[in-house]
Amino acid sequence: MKENLSLPGRRPWRLVVLALAVWMGMSGAAFAQDDTAPETSYEIWPETDLWLRLSPAWRLSMFVPLTQNIETKYREGNLILQADYGWGRTKSLIKRRMLDEDRAREMKIFLARGGYNHGQSLDDKGASYLENMLFFEFHVRNPLKGRILLSHRFRADFRWLGEDRTFSTRYRYRLMVEKEFLWGRASIVPYVNVEPFYDSRYDYVNRVRYIGGATVAWTSYFAIETNLTYQHDSKSSVTNLYALNVILHIFF
Predict the structure, then answer these.
(1) How would you class 27 by CB atoms within 10 Å of its CB: exposed for 0-12, middle for 13-18, buried for 19 or more?
(2) Average pLDDT, 10 consecutive residues per value, the chain (252 residues)
């Protein structure tokens, strides 16, 4: 039986064109506002993610990402706690393993997520960097022809920075394309995404992040994800950041 991968009454290519137009405009704003001397940094981002599915709709997770600068050895750590709720169906039921799923299951078109993030510099006990953040996300997943999945993520960050807990907000939009390939019992999901950041401290889009990578899962309990990140930030002391991210996903 042939699967219908399009949403009823929609033309997915129009969404793609619209999303790309928005991204290009926001990315251009970020580069145009660059008023700092270009600096480049190379980092490694190891991470462990724990996932606990409570029901077909509800899921809890905990992320423990680390950051280390290759040249200076400067390190940061984060602890992220979050909860997801997914809902909505396509016209035809689609079961597949997605980038952040533990096993093939019916796809939920919409997903809402909320969570808390604590981050700090590790070697000086938060003197260089200290952050507490609440965040909320809304995901829209659009299955396209050829088993390609187009995803939109809208995210709001509410941040308290430094020991004086200075409050600011940040708004992010991520456009991602991914496709699953099956090789025996293994699932391979390559993906690319782009994400501009609007920061209330500067009142414009100061950061754009580009990521390309893949997730490989061979059991229902483990998956390995690796990607390369390029980040341009016009207000950071590091204007150009290149990072290798390696993530171990553990599912319960």
Answers:
(1) middle
(2) 38 51 52 57 96 92 96 95 89 56 68 97 91 97 87 97 95 95 88 97 96 92 94 91 96 91
| Residue 28 structure tokens | 């251009």
Predicted model pTM: 0.81
Q: What is the pLDDT of residue 8?
A: 38
Q: Catalogue the long-range contacts made by 153-157 (C-beta closer than 8 Å, 24 or more residues apart).
A: 153/195, 157/133
State how far the Cα of 16 lies from the Cα of 107, in Å rounded to an integer. Answer: 20
Question: 225 has which bridge partners?
Answer: 215, 247
SS3 241: strand
* CATH code that applies to domain 12-251: 2.40.160
Contact criterion met (CB below 8 Å) for 227 and 245 = yes
- Residue 25's pLDDT is 54
Residue the block writes with tokens 């905990």: 62
